[in-house]
Every structure is written in C-alpha cells, then in structure tokens.
Queue: 2 jobs
Job 1
Amino acid sequence: MSANITNSGEIQTLLNNVAGLNNADGDPRIKEIVRRIVSDLFTAIEDLDITESEFWHGLHFMQAAAPELILIAPGLGFDHFQDVLMDAADEKAGQTGGTPRTIEGPLYVENAPVSNGEATLVSDEEGDPMQVFGVIKDEQGAPIANAKVEIWHASKDGGYSHFDPSLKEFAFRGSIITNEHGEYRATSIMPSGYACPPGGSTEAMLKQLGRHGNRPAHIHFFVSASGYKHLTTQINIAGDPYTFDDFAFATRDELVVDANDVDGVAHVNFDLSMVKAVDASDEQRSGRPRMAG
Ligand code: DHB
Ligand code: FE
C-alpha cells in the first residue's frame, strides 16, 4: 500500500497536532485546509520518494518565487481549474448560459478612469490603433444600459501599466458605462501577447516543464450590472501564434475574436451576454485581493 508511513498512527497524530486539531483556538476552516494540504504533501513525498535535497530545493524555489506566485498560479492551471469548478457549480444550480467566464489574471488594477459610453484609454505609446466595442445584452438579447464594463490590456510590447514602470498610470485601463443601447466602445492600441517576466521564477519553472510562458494578445473584461451575475472574462485575438497555446490556459473557443481592419483601425467587436443574478452576492466579483491604482 502507498503512503504507509503517512498513514501510520504516529504521522496521523503529527498531522493533527500540526493543524492544531488538539486545541480549541484558531480558525476551524484554516485547520481543515492545512491538515489536508500538509497530509497530501506528506503522501506525495512518501509515494514519489522525494528526497530531502529535492524537498529543500523546492522550498527554496518557492521562497525565491514568492513575488511571482500570482503569476505562476495561472501557469500551473489553478486559475482555469477554478473556472471549471465555478462552471460546474453553475451547471448544478441550473444557472448556465451567457458569455463564458475565463480567468481574471494577476494584473487588474482598481480605480481606472470611468467614462460614459466610450473611452479613449490613456496611452503615451505609439501603436496600431484598435477599437474594442460591442453590446452588453441579457440572455434574451435585450441591451443592458448602465452596465459597467471594465477593460484592461497590455501595451504593444506586452506590458501592463502599474507593473511595467515604463507605462503611464492607468494606461490601457478603463471603465465604461454602457449607453441606452447597451453599447460600450474603447479606443486604444492593439495589445501584444504577454510573456512571463524574463529571468524570473515563473520562466525558470516552465523551462523545467519544457513549456513556454507566453499568452496570446488578449483583452480583459469585468462586466457588472444591477440584477446580473458579475462576469470575469477576456477575449483572445484570433490569429496570434499563442491563441490556442496559452500558458495560462485562458482561451475558450467562444472567446476568440477576430480583429478586422477598417481603414487602418483594428476593429474588435465583442458582444457579451449576462445571466440574471439569483442573489445580491452574485452581482459582486470575487473577494480576491487586488491592487489599487
Ligand atoms: C498572467 C498574465 C496575464 O496578463 C494574464 O492575463 C494571465 C496570467 C501571468 O503572468 O500569469
Ligand atoms: Fe492579461
């Protein structure tokens, strides 16, 4: 049998003590999670014969990687896995439909400028002009006025403002309130695909896995409207070499959108469909910690 030692009374008692199950203080939910995760790691160490050296190499890697952990998580599929879990929960609750969700990613910033109907996103950069526009609709196709459409994307070099110091504050970020026809429109420049930071821990880890750290050109969306479920999604521009080879596993077929040249401006037309909220908390995005700009 596998994990004989982990399953022994001695180690089970150790795990109970590690997780503080022998005291009445602390947070029961945290205790439950710590007990399970440490136990699963002990099992993996035993089953895979992870040596002491390998264990400490792993721990030192994580210590060095700490500032990049939120970048590594998508590369290890955690963000997409959460989407699949949320899709399954929606399915079980009979709340399917609407534009598919996909990962938020680690680079959202709060407090971007708000505009009505349309916005020209802040930029000092030259780039290929782009307009991203569409209609926010309910599931019957009726437009939703006063929906809040938050958009953020990378520069022509794949950098994000507030993370890439060469970019102006709130560059390529904006919050647009839909007009009476449910329309939003952002004037900006075409983003390039993103690559994980060169020389960093994410890149080092992916190399050990024989993988790359590239994402296709993409545009992020948060959409919220009174009475509808908050939607976190993004579109991937068709034709990018990484559209179907995204290291963060965020591409979904329904979210691949063409950029059509109209008199030298890339037009990216994306309508979104919102599902009715069941309770007020559905209207909110997740409580994930986010950077305030
Ligand atoms: C990462 C970067 C992104 O721009 C994104 O949308 C998702 C993930 C990352 O660095 O992991
Ligand atoms: Fe992104």
Job 2
Amino acid sequence: METVLTIDGPSGAGKGTVSRLIAGELGWNYLDSGAIYRALALEITEKDIEHGSIEGIVEAALAMDLRFECGEERAVLLNGNDITDLLALESTGNTASKIAAIPEIRAALLQKQHDFLQAPGLVADGRDMGTVVFPDAKFKVFLTASAEERAQRRYKQLKLKGIDANLAAITADIQERDQRDSERQISPLVPAVDAVYIDSSAMSIQDVVKEVLSLVR
Ligand code: C5P
C-alpha cells in the first residue's frame, strides 16, 4: 500500500517548499491541494460564475481539466492553459479561501485529490489532508509559524517572482485567511490529533525538512 505523509498548516508556513523537497528526496508524488482550490477560483473567474452559485461552481469543479507538470520548473495547466503564475496571486488565494468554505465544493474536489495517491508514496500538502482527505495517513505533520514570519516569507516569495507586493497588505490578508480557514464549519484548519506539531518560525527550511524526514525514515 502507498504510504502517505500529510503536511497541513496555515498559508506561508513553508508547506509547499518543504513538501516538494521531501517528495523529491523520497521519490514520492506530491499533492498541492491549495493549487486545486486556487485553480477552481481562476476557473470561476474566467467563466464569470458567481461566488454564490454553488451549483455552478460544483459543475465547474467536476469539469475542469487540471494538470500538474513536473519538469525542471512546475507548471499547472487548466484546460490546456498555463496558469502557474496566476495561481500565486493573492487575489487567487483569497477567492480560493472563500469557495473552500462551502461543503459541496470541498466534496466535489475530493476525488481529484485522492487521484494523487499512487505508488510508492504521497506527500499531501494542505489544510485538511490529515483530518479529512487522508485520515489514515501513516505520517502527519502540522507545520506552522507566526503570522509575521509567514507574511515576511510570502512577501519575499512574491518579490522573487517579480510580483508587486505590500507587506502590510499581505499580513492583513494572511490574518483574514487564517481566521476564515480556522473558523469555517467544514474541514477547518486544525491539527489532526495524531499530527506532529512543528513551529518553523525560527527554523530554516533545511531544518524542517530534516525533522520531517527523520519521522518518515
Ligand atoms: O495553500 P494555499 O494558500 O494555496 O490555499 C489557498 C486556499 O485554499 C486556502 O486559504 C484555503 O482556504 C484553501 N484550502 C483548503 N483546503 C486545502 C488547501 C487549501 O481549504 N486542503
């Protein structure tokens, strides 16, 4: 059976970088579940589907053709179009967080996430990987950091990508998103009871990777 390592936590905790490095190190598949919610946010914006139209969004979720290409640089294709850069926008994350609070939409995206479970193993990164999507995962991590540290990291990340960014706006956005993700009724952002809790505020990415790898090995 495939082994699953789930890495959940709030935005900007370093889950993406850590998960990718670990998946590369172990030769496992990688699921970036946030990118699936973000892609759906782009799809409904592109198709002009209203945020209140649950039926329309569910239909779009089931119909969208989403591909993750792992070359030297990761590329994400939505219905054949490269959406990699659009996915990273704060506005995309914000819309994603709004639609992610709707149970029917989460249910519609479940299968797409389960499809990533392939041999020899999977590193699944998100908010509810260890609690809802892969509750039987063998290894579970909850990775967090202070809101200030996460805002700084996201700011640097966007700047590196050449995207215009404002630290105060990012901090406010992260706090708003944390609150919405933690307080929603369905699949709120909470550590699984059997997750190992890591606060990475004062840790380097390499230290976090080492600590998580030591759990799995
Ligand atoms: O992780 P990322 O910032 O890309 O996720 C964007 C948004 O998608 C999050 O703020 C969250 O609301 C939602 N999300 C979720 N469940 C996941 C992954 C992401 O609700 N497993």
